[in-house]
Write a structure and sequence with these properties.
about 45% helix; about 90 residues; single chain; Oxidized Rhodanese, domain 1; four-stranded parallel sheet
């Protein structure tokens, strides 16, 4: 899957796993903020989403952790988008 194209065409849900404070400092438009430490308690909520899920954070580390966790729970349509700046770039170009 070409993540850039999926993001650009709005065919995915973007989940930002940074803290609420970081998210309020800037984020991808229409993204959902679920901090990394809340992912284990809210993964069933994410499982209900039918579109691909692109996870992002500041550098790709926390979104990578969230992606691995969700894959371990049996979700297959989750992808590490890396930095929210990168996801935002693809969404706007």
């Amino acid at each position: 899957m070409d993540l850039a194209n999926v993001i650009k065409t709005n065919n995915a849900v973007v989940v930002d796993v940074r803290s609420r404070g970081e998210y309020l400092g800037g984020h991808v438009v229409d993204s959902i903020n679920i901090p990394l430490d809340e992912i284990p308690a809210r993964w069933t909520e994410l499982k209900q989403i039918e579109k691909p899920i692109i996870l992002c954070c500041a550098s790709g580390n926390r979104s990578g952790q969230a992606t691995r966790f969700l894959l371990q729970q049996g979700m297959s349509n989750v992808h590490n988008g890396g930095s929210w700046f990168d996801v935002n770039f693809y969404k706007n170009n």
